[in-house]
Amino acid sequence: MYPFNYHQPKSAEEAAHILAANPEAKILAGGQTLLPTMKQRLAGPSDLVDLGAVGDLAGISEKGGTLRIGAMTPHAEVAKSPVVAKAIPALAALAGGIGDPHVRSVGTIGGSVANNDPAADYPAACIALGATIHTTNRDIAADDFFTGLFQTALADDEIITAISFPAAKKAAYTKFRNPASRYAIVGVFVAQAAGGVRVAVTGAGENGVFRVGEMETALDKNFSADAVAGIAVPADGLNSDIHANAEYRAHLITVMAKRAVAAAG
Predict the structure, then answer these.
(1) How many CB atoms lie within 10 A of CB 215?
(2) Residue 112: exposed, middle, or buried by beta-carbon count in 10 A (0-12, 13-18, 19+)?
(3) How far apart are CA 22 and CA 225, in angstroms?
(4) Domains of the chain, residue spans
(5) Which fold has domain 59-264?
(6) Which fold has domain 5-49?
(7) For residues 26 and 194, what is the distance between their CA atoms, to the nearest angstrom?
(8) What is the pLDDT at residue 55?
(9) Which of 47, 54, 250, 253 could join 5 in a cystine, given CB atoms 3.0 to 4.6 angstroms apart?
(10) pTM of the model
(11) What gap in Å lies between CA 101 and CA 97, rounded to an integer?
(12) DSSP assignment of 175-199, as one string?
């Protein structure tokens, strides 16, 4: 691990100031991605800005049909929260399927969303549920937030403070997971809300999470597994790696979509 300066700010605003003053600094949220890459010397930030002491960045609340989760809330808290289970059960189930107990206890929703790993689960939930990402500077719609592989709309000195999820009429997430890491080889989140159906896919796309418009149109007309059974996503633009090639991932998208729709009811 390369040497670095350590900071433990007491507010998100103080953390943002440190980031602005140190262009090579990195935020430490749960650290489940950053710390291993630093240990392997694949990352060498000049400064680590630990958000662990910023108490108002954690917590879960619901008001007016909108679920709000603080950025520093661990996955385990999302998974076991009765507020989340009542408002959006599919989100609680998603959080409970991330990694293992250690990862769920330490990793945070804000860290996962900011990292935008192409195989992470939360980006699919954000897109499918039409979430809003709140930062120290502004509010960003999920559709505008995820911009590419490990890329987001966040500015260098911008920090996620919370994420808001509108409640859905029906929602479910299913994934074909890597048995070792539990990352999604393919994951599909389906949500039906007042504005229509949204289908988001993670784990498969070369550019990260994406929507499947053809499935959304079909489900708007007939919310059933049969409605998506004959819809095939092209293999072009999908990942191929040691776990699955693009053609297999294309097949899995349809399979996982059918299961998600069936689970959503």
Answers:
(1) 25
(2) buried
(3) 50
(4) 5-49, 59-264
(5) 3.30.465
(6) 3.30.43
(7) 38
(8) 86
(9) 47
(10) 0.94
(11) 9
(12) EEE-TTT--EEEEEEEEEETTEEEE
